[in-house]
Design a protein that fits this description.
Low-confidence stretches: none
Number of helices: 9
Order of helices and strands: HHHHEEEEEEHHHHH
Oligomer: single chain
CATH architecture of the domain at 98-156 and 211-340: Orthogonal Bundle
CATH topology of the domain at 98-156 and 211-340: MetI-like fold
Helix content: 55-70%
CATH class of the domain at 98-156 and 211-340: Mainly Alpha
Strand content: 5-15%
Radius of gyration: 26 Å
Distance between the termini: 55 Å
């Protein structure tokens, strides 16, 4: 009588789902054990450092987070007052970091996409200007560019009484950027438009010069790197795909939008993830121009409490968490475009 594969001791097709489930469970358990061990190691290092500080007569611990901060923070979200505890000041610092990094990331991706495509166009002047800009910003340190942008915002722009109108309702001056912003009134949510006044624009959202400088510097600097990523992704698309799009009668813009960029994404997204991570971490340089982001709040807290180790540990933990969240979100998007292309 013939025997089946399972009777002969070899796994049959019916055993494969069970083996796959067990492999998945084993992989998850191993990851949980690794994460638990890593968290335990970090906890031990922190506690050991605190014990050493206490043994040397240095006050240590994170209990100061519940004390009244008393440090000034000029702007930010969520709102903060000096009488609130230190944890609220750190929360405002995190909010200010995201408030600068998110718009800068969006601007960097949009500008980098335009520069990357512009460098590949057959028009020599356009491609030359794009290449010149990319080489310029990529070879000058970000801190110097940030200081230059801050100087330009603070010195070269017009006075608040004579602001420069960039768009309808958008005014730029030494006092910063005024732009329309939704506000809640008796009639519900309405868009409030800034108006030019005797002492500067009034109404809408008023963005400080320090905020404008850090967002502009991060966006302009990172756009050069994003442009090279986009250029490499576009050039990685096989030439046959370009020829097929032309054979279908697509215009150059349609060819790039519907055929080339969807396939280039699969090369662009992984490298773009690293650039967005770098941009978020580079936002810590905002302390150089006085913008009250996380590192600036930590420095003021250290000066007030002397808890240098604890403040630096908080900053490191926050940036680690932000990096993991960005990497996780971009990895999910990368899996999506790798399977389905442009959606």
């Amino acid at each position: 009588m013939p025997t089946t594969p399972s009777q002969a001791g070899t796994p049959g097709p019916q055993d494969q789902p069970a083996r796959a489930r067990w492999a998945l469970v084993r992989k998850i358990l191993l990851q949980l054990v690794f994460v638990a061990a890593l968290c335990g190691l970090v906890w031990w290092v922190v506690q050991h450092a605190l014990d050493v500080l206490r043994a040397r007569g240095v006050r240590s611990g994170f209990d100061f987070l519940l004390d009244a901060a008393g440090i000034p923070i000029s702007e930010g979200w969520p709102s903060y007052s000096p009488g609130e505890p230190f944890w609220r000041a750190f929360l405002t610092g995190v909010g200010n970091t995201l408030r600068a990094a998110v718009p800068a990331s969006i601007l960097a991706v949009v500008l980098g996409l335009l520069l990357g495509v512009g460098r590949l166009v057959p028009h020599r002047l356009v491609s030359g200007l794009c290449a010149g800009y990319i080489n310029l910003v990529r070879n000058i340190p970000l801190l110097l560019q940030l200081l230059m942008v801050s100087f330009a915002v603070g010195s070269l722009l017009p006075d608040p009484i004579e602001p420069l109108q960039l768009l309808p309702g958008v005014w730029l001056s030494k006092a910063g950027l005024a732009m329309p912003w939704p506000v809640h009134g008796e009639a519900g949510w309405v868009l409030e438009w800034p108006e030019r006044g005797n002492f500067g624009p009034t109404g809408g959202a008023a963005l400080s010069p320090e905020y404008v400088a850090i967002v502009a510097a991060l966006a302009l600097y990172s756009a050069g790197f994003v442009a090279e990523i986009v250029r490499a992704g576009i050039q990685a698309v096989p030439q046959g795909q370009w020829l097929a799009a032309r054979a279908l009668g697509l215009k150059p813009g349609q060819e790039m939008r519907y055929v080339v960029l969807p396939q280039a994404q699969r090369v662009i997204v992984p490298a773009l993830t690293n650039q967005l991570l770098s941009l978020t971490k580079n936002s810590s340089l905002a302390v150089a121009v006085g913008y009250p982001e996380l590192v600036s709040v930590a420095n003021m807290t250290i000066g007030t409490t002397g808890r240098a180790f604890e403040c630096i540990a908080i900053v490191m933990a926050v940036y680690l968490l932000l990096s993991l969240l960005i990497a996780g979100g971009m990895n999910l998007y990368n899996k999506r475009v790798a399977l389905r292309g442009w959606a």
